[in-house]
Predict the structure.
Amino acid sequence: MVDSPAQTRRSFSVRPTAVPTESNLFEAIAGQAAGIEQNIGRVISGKGRVIRLAVTAFLAHGHLLIEDVPGVGKTMLAKALAASIGATVRRIQFTPDLLPSDVTGAPIFNQQTREFDFEPGPVFANIVIGDEINRASPRTQSALLECMEERQVTVEGTTYALDNPFLVVATQNPIDMEGTHALLEAQRDRFMMRISMGYPDEAAEQDMVKARAHGEPIEQISPVVTLKTARDMIEGCQQVHVADAITAYAVAITRASRSHQALRLGASPRAAVHLVAAGRAYAAMHGRGYVLPDDIQYLAEPVLAHRLMAISPASGLEAAAQLRAIVRGVVESVPVPVPIRG
């Protein structure tokens, strides 16, 4: 038993012993992931961390929520990620009048057969870009719940499987902006990560203005990995070793959030699952076949913060900053596993 968290804030200094030896696999994933990041960076400049987290969510086969004020590149990031992968992509513009059937599809009467045929909606794609998702009504937002969790759609008693991989990349504006609805707690919990773009620095903003003078940069990028390669990368990340101590560490962090005095809703068990899955992908992106405590610490904010509810919430983007600060405090309070040297 450790005496205090401060005495244990360090990472594994040696490679754990029970780790798969497929080093070439993880080196390949790291190289391919770097290629995707560089491709996105041609469109989104000065946002290396944001891009890396977006790629991490994809490789962890998790859904991604991008929240920020209008005009900072949320949709552009989603499009660039989709354009970097040779996969089917559909975009849904969420509006107040959008219906659930506009997302999932609906039975259409066939005049020739005199029967109803199911017409798939835009959710039937590898990557679904949900633009301004919180402008739609809660009823329409609910149409994504089954899609995101079970990767299937049920319409009038018939279930249809979605494509593999299936990833929702959604953008949303701060809740205090006009015409927005708060995302359902169940839907927020289905997003593996929430990230914020933030304003670019001065140099990056100048580069963006210059690039737009010659057309849209997004039209100049092409896929750097095929759909098969993307599937192999996702499957490869699932082979990353997670020591029991790391699993216990991730669970301890999520459980600690549930007793935090500033929160009325802590992280769910699904959050712990997502945190470990993201840790696997992040480790593979660094060419490692094992997860470190550093990986869990780095990913805790984007994976956990959007699932929490404060007792005295702030407004707008300040609320997101408040919850990220709480997550940092929770992580600081949980002892880090001590490395075992073989």
Observations:
- The radius of gyration is 21 Å.
